[in-house]
Design brief:
With 126 residues, this protein is mainly β. It is 10% helix and 51% strand. It is built from two helices and nine strands.
Length: 126
């Protein structure tokens, strides 16, 4: 599993813009927000019961407690998506494979860069 880290401006339904440390992780199936980050930008849609998430090591489990819609600006590539909110997360945000694929964002691990040349920004909420 290889990851690239970038800072992103992120907004949720509270209309408060925050700058988050985001991991771009092609090994993560979906995007995630830490509970602390999510609480600052959005009203969390709490799950009826926590959803266990197994991390990349195949052993460690953390709980997703809800979901949150977000808008992120990555150098003009506007991402509108939802993220599951993790009870505990060591970073503000994880951008996972589903979001990368939906927006045609490519990761260049050799050069530690995010390729936005084919980004499909969406002007409507998905």
């Amino acid at each position: 599993m290889t990851i690239i880290t970038r800072r992103l401006k992120v907004t949720g339904n509270k209309q408060i813009e925050e700058e988050f440390e985001a991991l771009f992780d092609s090994g993560s199936s979906r995007s995630f927000l830490s509970s602390e980050s999510a609480e600052r930008i959005c009203t969390i849609d709490i799950f009826d019961k926590p959803e266990p998430i197994i991390l990349g090591d195949g052993k460690t489990t953390v709980n997703a407690i809800g979901s949150c819609w977000f808008i992120a600006d990555l150098d003009g590539c506007i991402i509108r998506d939802d993220a599951w909110v993790l009870e505990y997360c060591s970073t503000d945000m994880i951008i996972g494979a589903r979001t990368l694929e939906n927006y045609n964002i490519k990761l260049d691990f050799e050069n530690d860069t995010v390729d936005l040349s084919s980004c499909k920004s969406m002007n409507i909420l998905v």
